[in-house]
Structure formats: C-alpha cells, structure tokens
Amino acid sequence: MRMFSSVEFTAKKVKMAEFKVHRVRFFDYMPTAIRAMAFNPRTERLAVIPGQDGRAAEALCWLGQRLFSAGLNGEITEYDLENLRPRYTVEAYGGPIWSISSNSQGTLLAVGCEDGTVKIFEILEERIQFQRNLDRQKGRIISLCWHPSGTLIAAGMMDMIKIFDAESGRATHRLLVERGVGASKSREVVVWSIAFLSDHTIISGDSAGKVQVWDGLTGTLVRTHLVTKWDVLALSSSQDESSVVAGTSEGTVVQFQFLSSNVGPQDKEWVRTRTFKNHSHDVRGLAHTDTAVVSGGMDTQLVVRPLLDKVEKNTQESALRKIAFPHRSLVCCAKKAGLLLFQFPDHLELWRLGESNGHGSPGDSLPVKRKPEKLIQLKRKVARIISAAELCLHVEAGWRTPLSTSFRLYRLQNNTISVTKVSRLLRTFARRSSSASPLTPPNSLLPPRSSVLVVALNQSECKYLTPSDPSQPVHLLCVSEDGKWLATANTDCQIHVFNLDKLKLHCTVPVYSSCPTAIAIHPTNSNLVVVHADQQKEYTEWSRKLQKQGLHPLWMERDTPITHIAFNPKNPAHIILHDTFMFCIIDQNLPLPEAKTPLYNQMTLRSLPESERIMHSHAFKICKNFQHLLCVRLLEDHSLVVVERPLLDILSQLPAPVRQKRFAT
C-alpha cells in the first residue's frame, strides 16, 4: 500500500499516559515549490511566493515598504500588506515577465519581458504607471538588477549581459557569456541571475553552472567560478557587498567573499569560501542578511542558515532553522465526531477516522477494524486558490466553512453526511468578509485589518470587536471551549484577548519581541498559552519558573517552530505541542530537565531499564519517530490523531537535480 494512502493504529506508552494513536498518511497534499523570494533589510521582512498553476510568479521585489511581483501571465501585482492580498495588477504588454527590480531611490520599477524589452514604471502613491521602454533586444530578458546609483541597469539574457543607461535607454556594454568547457556551440547559456554592485562589479549565475565576475565599467570578464555541472539559479549579495551567495539546481548554496589576495592586502578578489547543502533540489530563492543566508526552492522548505562568523556560537541565533510550507494548518479535526477536514488548493475533503480492534503493547500496530472513509469532496466551481488561513471545521455545532473574499457557509448533516449551503447569512457577510483569517468555533470572523466580526449563526446579525491597534493583520486566532474567550495574534507580535459574552476587548498581552507561532486557551483554567518563534512561553507561575531556569539547550536548537498547541482534557497539567518533525507532551507537575539531562525520544527511553527510565523522568516527553507532521490532536476518547505528510518520500523518488524548464512556449 502506498505511504500516502495508508493508516495505522499504534499503542504508545508515555510515562504519564497511554494513547491509541491514529497515524494518518492518506492526506496526499503536495505543496508547491518556492519560486521567488525578496528580503527587505529596512523592515527585516522576507516575502516568499510559491508557484500556482496558471499564475506562476517568477520574480518578487520590495520598493520601500511596498511589495511587487511579476510572472508569466505578463502582469505586475502590488500587494496589500495590511490585508494580505493583491491590491491591483497592471498589464505590462510585453508577454511573460521573467524579472523585476526597483531602483534604490524607490522611484522606478523595471521588468524584463519575453519580447526583449525592459519596461520602466514610475511609482505613484497608489499605483504604478508605465514610463518608457529601454532599447529592445532580440532575446527575452531573464534577469535584471539596478546599479545602486539608479543610473544603470544590468540585464541577463541568452549568451550575454547588457548594461543599459537608465535615462537614455541605450545599451552601453555587451558582455558575452562563455558556454563552458566541452559545451555544444548550439547550446545557449541562460543568465538566470545577476547582481550589480556599487563599484560597478557585475556578478552573474548561468545555466552552464558558472558564477562569473565582470568589470561593469569596461565590460570585461574578471574571473569565472565553476560551481556545478547544472544551473546557478539565484544570487543574493550582503548589504555591505562583501559577500555573495549562489543557489544551484543541485540544492547547494555557495558563498563567495571579497577578500585580500596573497599579493597584498590592497588587492582583493572574489573567493569561494563555503558550500551549504540544505536542500534536495533546485534553490530558486535566496536572501543574504547580515547574519544568515535564507534559501528556498523545489523541496518547499525555507532554510535559515546562520553565518557562524557573524554570530556568537552556541546561541539561538547560531542554530539552523527550517520552515516547511505551507506553514499554517491544512487539517481541521472534530474531536467529538472523529472527522478530519483536509484542505487542498482548490477543494476540501472530509474524512471519517477508522477504528481498530483490541489492545496491544506500547509500540504495537493494532489491527484495523474499519478503514478511514472519505465522506465528502467539496470543490469550488470557479478555479480559485483556497487560502491556508480560510478554513474552519466545527462539526460539533454542525458547521464548516471555507472563507475568502466571497464568503461561503455550509451546514454539515452528521447523520446522512451531506452539506447544505446556507444562503441566509451570506448577504450579511457580503461586504464584511475577509481573506485574512478563519472562522473560529463557533461564531467569529475577522474582517480587514484586525477587527473581529462576531457572528451569531442562528441569527442574521454581526458585531465588531476592535483591538486598540487594528493596523496589523491577524495570523493566529483561538477560542476557548466554553465560547467565552477569544485570542488573536497579529503580525506585529501583538496578542489581544476578547470577552465574547460582553463583546469587548478584555486585555492586551505584553508585547514580546518574537512573533507568536501558536496560541491556545486552556479548557479548564483559561490560561492563554503562547509559543513564540524563539521557542519561549510566558507568564504563569510555571512559565516564570521555566524562564528562570531556561529551556533545555536541545529544545532551543530545534530547527522548526511549534505550529500547534493542544491540551489533555483528562489531565489539566498536560500541554501537547508539535512542530514539523516531533510532538511533545509537557507535564507541568514534573520537574524541568536540567541542561545536561538527555532529552530522549520516547522510543529510545522505552528500551532503557526501568530504574534508568525513572532517573530520566522530567516534564518533557518527546516523540520523534514521525514523518512531516501536519496535525496532532487529542480526541474525546483519549486517542491521539497524528496526520503526516508524505512529501519527503515523494521528493526522494524524483531525479536530482531537476533542471527547470521554465520558458514559455
């Protein structure tokens, strides 16, 4: 049976409890590759765009605090960063767009088109406006970069690089790119990426596997570095222009530094210094910050690789970080009904969990009595992406809904397993719905900015709850099981708590410098549990003790963030957390582990003698023997649902490297 259409029941014993575990591996979701990336050093924001069928974005750039993308549909898009959606699109009328770049002055935007033109757009307050074309070339413009002065533009093409005067539009230099040793004369070399530095040095990466250094003043080649047999797809330079990184189709990132040569300290040259291997396939996007290299591509992972010469060793900043996409939950679980709702880009699937026979020892696979069953598939009539933040399943109340700019609400009939579209409330939502956040069980919706729209599902009424600072979009939201409390977290690290009985803002949590990655309200004591990107949790008596002692070094060195928090209803002291590759049960009644205490995986701990297991007993109980975790939930029957994504298995079957066949036909 294929991995992504299987189910398994396992009895797992942890020191504090024993769970029957549903290992769900039939969610055959395949995330799309990272196609473009742009880092804004002023605001320290990183923008990442995945590929979408029919709407492929090839390039992304910041212009001040405004974000633009361009793609093979021939359009330029500016984004509304408050409401996290496209603001408008402009047709460039040059065919597919391969590259986009802005000048450092923030006044002009240049795009490279299929028809051989570099088109310049003027930046207005609310829109952009076409200004002029540079001299038209015979081949498509693949890559672009402005000189920091804003007077010159370097353009990568087939077999050459052109330097344009931005004012006159004329090409001033033509730099011919070598095909490489042994390459066929008929094979064209694609200049995939280009960097234009202040001293007029041009650095290019091409399909012959070369990183080349050019003198932009004279148009001459200074040095060639052969880094791969395949393609160099992306380049990024540091702010001080002393370092450049190149991403290849072999999944490697190669760093070059401008260092003093052996001849003398005044004579510097670009030297290859490091090679990082953190990806299995093509690296399509790169960002070079002051302390790290951020990379992403075909394997859908965003990797933050610290530059150890720029950070202190053995600190959180020196640890490797990985973010798997999509980074928001695609699985909703109905704890009472035992149902799972899976979110795909263009449809939803509702599944009923299977059942097992008998009992077993910890670690045993239990026989399946009833296999999982797909009950419903709900597909949009209009081909449109369902956003990862637009979904909620509240089967206990009989509701489920995918939300977008056009709001949809469905009633789920549990007995006959059917859905009915509820149109009575749709008119009420028509002018208030938003794509920024989900409907919370049972009755809340976030409209634009971070106001909260409370909806009574049995009445045609809506009311707003507005925090003190509604300027930032909400990215996390949770509601207490009794329906009294609602907590929201926005992209400015602010957390607001609302009283839904009084329909008022109750309080604002003290702002912490790191952005929250998961929030939840405890079902019995109403404590708000928050996990931040730096792995910290705060402010109860237990968490203050945790802060005083400090988290275990191995916990701090984990490379993926916590994405969900849950609780054990039979034991209020238990907190369940999970990230991409492990889940952890924290028992607040047990002592915290000391810095030198081993954080054993539970399967390893089980193999130790009983006396040694007791000696290693502490609050953190970790299970790591899982694939890519999408969801960990505890059902009302005390069984644990673990949904795993088989992405790594699928990628391992692909040839490596996979060369990008990206040209429009």
UniProtKB/TrEMBL annotation:
GO cellular component: 90S preribosome; small-subunit processome; t-UTP complex
Example GO BP: maturation of SSU-rRNA from tricistronic rRNA transcript (SSU-rRNA, 5.8S rRNA, LSU-rRNA)
MF-aspect GO terms: RNA binding
Residue stretches making up the Anaphase-promoting complex subunit 4-like WD40 domain: 133-180
Gene3D superfamilies the UniProt entry points to: YVTN repeat-like/Quinoprotein amine dehydrogenase (2.130.10.10)
Protein origin, superkingdom: Eukaryota
Name of the protein in its database record: Anaphase-promoting complex subunit 4-like WD40 domain-containing protein
Originating species: Dissostichus mawsoni (Antarctic cod)
Coiled coil location: none
Pfam families in UniProt: ANAPC4_WD40 (PF12894), WD40 (PF00400)
InterPro entries noted in UniProt: Apc4-like_WD40_dom (IPR024977), Quinoprotein_ADH-like_sf (IPR011047), UTP4 (IPR046351), WD40/YVTN_repeat-like_dom_sf (IPR015943), WD40_rpt (IPR001680)
